[in-house]
Design goal:
- By secondary structure, this protein is mainly β.
- It contains no helices and 11 strands.
- The strands form 2 sheets. A 7-stranded mixed sheet has the order 1-3-5-10-11-7-8, with no helix packed on it. A 4-stranded mixed sheet has the order 2-4-6-9, with no helix packed on it.
- Strand 7 and strand 8 form a beta hairpin.
Length: 137
């Protein structure tokens, strides 16, 4: 199944039901829905279709560059594998920046992490920024 939705942007300060909704589920549940995990061994520009990233890196630092052209609310969850001993960096392309919430709300264009924690990034299309924080996994 392929679904594509264009039209109104959801930047307005109004009812959450306004904007582009390819799927709207008023009530009920989704059963069996899982997002794909991508395991990466080398530096790469992430796809806007990626969601969960596991860094498999045993030496040095590999860099994951966040793509341009993402939709408002795009999410990435990035974590090193427990079997990996290397670091990973997260970078943005020129013209974008990241807000890092665990370090005093600083802004940057790249950050290197080596603490074994997971990180969540959410894209704010209106302000061209990625909001990054430590995940609970």
């Amino acid at each position: 199944m392929y679904i594509d939705c264009h039209g109104i942007t959801g930047y307005e300060n109004s009812d959450a039901r306004t904007g582009n909704h390819a799927i709207w589920i008023e009530n009920g549940h989704i059963l069996g829905f899982r997002r794909k995990i991508r395991r990466l061994y080398s530096s790469t520009i992430l796809s806007k279709y990626d969601s969960h990233i596991i860094a498999i890196n045993n030496s040095g630092t590999i860099t994951f560059t966040l793509p341009h052209g993402c939709e408002d609310g795009q999410e990435y969850h990035i974590k090193s594998s427990h079997f990996a001993s290397g670091n990973f960096a997260i970078a943005v392309e020129q013209g974008y920046y990241m807000s890092i919430y665990w370090s005093g709300n600083s802004t940057t264009t790249s950050v290197t992490v080596n603490d074994g924690k997971g990180y969540t990034l959410v894209y704010d299309a209106l302000n061209l920024q990625w909001m990054m924080d430590i995940s609970g996994y």
